[in-house]
Amino acid sequence: MKILALIFSLFLSFSALAQQSYKITYLRSSHDQVIENQDPIILFANKSETALTSGKIVDGKAKFPYERTFTTTASAKNFYKVTNFSESKEIATIDSLSLNRYAFELLDEEKEILGYKVKKAKTLVNSNTIEVWYTNALDIKGGPNETGQSLGLVLEYVRNGNSAITASSIEKINEIPALVKMPAHLTFLDELTYRDEVWKSRFIQIPIFKNEKINFSDEAKSDSILRFANGTVILKKVKIPEFAKESQGFIELVEKSNGDAYDRTGSVFMIAEDQAQSFFDGMKNGMATLPFYEDATGKKYQGMVRTDGYSPVFELMRFFTPFGVSHFNKNLTLKGKTWQDSVSYRQDISEFLPVMAGKEVYIGTYIGNYDKGGHKVSLELTIHPGNSNSIIAQNILSIFNTTNVMEMGGQDYATLFGQEKGLEVTFTLPQDAKNAKLRYITTGHGGWGEGDEFVPKVNSIFLDNELAFKFTPWRVDCGSYRLYNPVSGNFGNGLSSSDLSRSNWCPGTITYPNYIDLGDLKAGTHTIRVHIPQGAPEGSSFSFWNVSGALIYD
Which keywords does this Swiss-Prot/TrEMBL entry list (predicted)? Predict the structure, then answer.
């Protein structure tokens, strides 16, 4: 603290000296074309200090959070970075590396910018070629960013020959305005903590689960986490704030084995509450209380399809646990292999944001297992401002989900695809639907070596008796995730079980949705049918398919 006080004292002493100050305005360009409607970069500088800011900050129109950068000759090797989160909250850090972080090659080329002769220097930043054009004519140092300021006043910064920041004006001013000077009293953080706080301030973080156990147990719990199906399903009511319409949403799940050694089906889901009855009712009151789907043999499946008055769950993410990551890492050591400590599954779920904004929603996680130790998971939802390239529409309806989330609560496996009809769901659209898409997730399971888990099978999706889409869901990249599978079975031919190709899933990965274009649909009744040539049982083993479908439309 005494050192900081001395620096500030020197800073104020230098500022008091009469000296020429400048205001330099910079504009960004791409391929020699100035970018329109940009917020210009503004540098205020004299021999004693610099303040790097922007036009909107100077005009008081910048949105929080925003960052400014300062230097002083009292501490010539440091940048002071200050971020304002609000009118009353700001944090700062000292960056002692930026000024001399890069070694420059000084070149003989010269040119003029705004009447000043400038010299060229070149360096590499993260494999990008950076060229700076600088002058010493004004006896000050600074620039539009930290790069090259040790050389002099940078008037142009060029990245890879096509992206530039160039001085558009240089004005003499009497002194640096008090509004943009470095604040006298700051809360300093170490640089890593500072960067973390700045990063997190730019989006919404909604923690859902933190190191929660998903296991097969009757142990009583009294926290805010609801547990069902002998502890294999956890559920929590989450308050989602209002946010900008143009936003992107991500969920991230971190999983570790807590005793279960096997690859298990997992699902992150949200309760659809657009009708009188929801899946949550079945979780509380028993799955037999939910509407059922009856196949051609008379077998009944509870809560899997949409009916008038009931909606199945929205599946946000389908994931698969690896073979015993973390808990069993020391059980097998292999030369040249270091097992991962956990698996992080991260997925864009922006299409679900319209049914979340400003509401309280139930979000849950299921991992099918019969192990008392089971698994530990952490789950977070983040919402980020800005346009998304994802498929986002105004409406989304849950149509079907055959993943038996309540497996340990009596919900059966979907073996109905062995029949010609497969899965057929009739639903009612309340209004005309434009640009309708079916968000479809599919994975095949069971049957040992000749079962659908290990045999490619065509999935055909029909809309109103017309084939809309067909494809063969198959993953051949499972061996890429070997380091997440410490106790995967090993075979005499040198392969591990986790290496084997599977019907759209690998141990330790996410199964991504397919977005199937259905065109414009009229209000009223429609039918979606899913056909898969499911294999016959092999002794005590049988094949089944977990498929989920949500209709997205404008």
Answer: Disulfide bond, Signal
Q: Indicate the helix (H) or strand (E) that contains 191.
A: helix 191-200
Portions of the chain given CATH number 2.50.20: 2-198
- For CATH 2.60.120.1570, the residue range(s) in the chain are 203-553
Q: What are phi and psi of 435, to 5 degrees?
A: 55, 45
Which CATH number applies to 2-198: 2.50.20, 1.20.950, 3.30.720, 3.90.1750?
2.50.20
User: b/e for 331-357, b at 16 or more Cβ within 10 A?
Assistant: eeeeeeeebbeebebebbbbbbbebbb
Q: What share of the chain is helix, strand, coil (3-state, %, to 5)?
A: 15, 45, 40
CA dist 501 → 70, 415, 476, 496 (Å): 55, 21, 5, 11
pLDDT digits (tens, 9 = 90+) for 317-370: 999 999 999 999 999 898 889 999 999 999 999 999 999 999 999 999 999 999
pTM of the model: 0.90
CB 481 within 8 A of CB 508: yes
Consecutive H or E run containing 25: strand 21-30
Bin 284: left if φ > 0, else alpha if -120 < ψ < 50, else beta.
alpha
CATH 2.40.160.20 is the classification of domain 203-553: no
pLDDT tens column, 457-466: 999 999 999 9
Residue 3 DSSP one-character state: H
